[in-house]
Task: structure prediction
Amino acid sequence: MAKRNIIEKAIDWSRRKSPWIIHFNAGACNGCDIEVVDALTPRYDVERFGMLLKGTPRHADVLVCTGAVTLQTRDRLKRIYEQMPEPKFVLAVGTCACSGGIFEDCYCVSGGMDTVVPVSAYIPGCAARPEAILDAVVKLLTSLEKSQKAIDN
Amino acid sequence: MTDNVQGSLLAKFPYLESKIKEQRQGRIFLDPLQKEQFWPVFDYIIDELGYKDFHMLVGRDSGETMHVIYLLTDGGANMLCPKLEVEKENPVIRSIYSRFSNCTWHELELVDLLGFVVEGLPEGLPNYPLPDGWPKGSHPLRKDWKVEYFNKETLTYNPPSDI
Result:
């Protein structure tokens, strides 16, 4: 792969240092959503790592998605994913988002997040703890840094 | 107080004999009634006995017939549940919208999930709660509906023809 110039490196560095996120509920019971909010607010304060919750997918790098994907939200989730600029990442928060959970075979549920969009990191738990969400974000950014370094070297 | 309720119901409607059950203090259930017998009882419960709060309603597929269970409360801890029975082939019920305007989404659930036909609902209400593009005439809470025959990708319901 071609070596990157200094501007591309700077863009990647800034993306790593401040990934903006969009939160989407695809049919969760609100348990995981509360934990996402807990991770964002001062108790865990994920904003100190530069993570910022945005209101629009066009500004976001990471889609933080909770809940089993219902048939009604399936097309909306796809549309939100397509609106995000490249490169984009998806965090599946909670057991339902990972696999469909107890709703997997329900008549109105498509299944886990990976039946609709490609998922970068799975965060199991019912509900997923804020520490687990932080851990997943750190692991995602670490793997991003590793792959960027591999390109440079 | 609930003894008075049972007494007045029996005095007014003798056909309710052995159809009233008090599961526990303040929880009175009536056995399913056909619509000719049901609506006078329903009106009497609300207007005369004072069960003026519409709590919720529940639809049920009992196999041979369909039931609607109305949960009415008196504003306190007492609940009275009359049950309406209709034929499975022709499940037409009357809306209680004129009395309780908050009944709409409960009754829309009956329409979508169990295939009831509700007369008297306002025009222009959306489908609820099944997703857009759900196949017409397919009601997932009916006993004869099987999730194995439902295709989630194309949203079609294809039961084998020999059933």
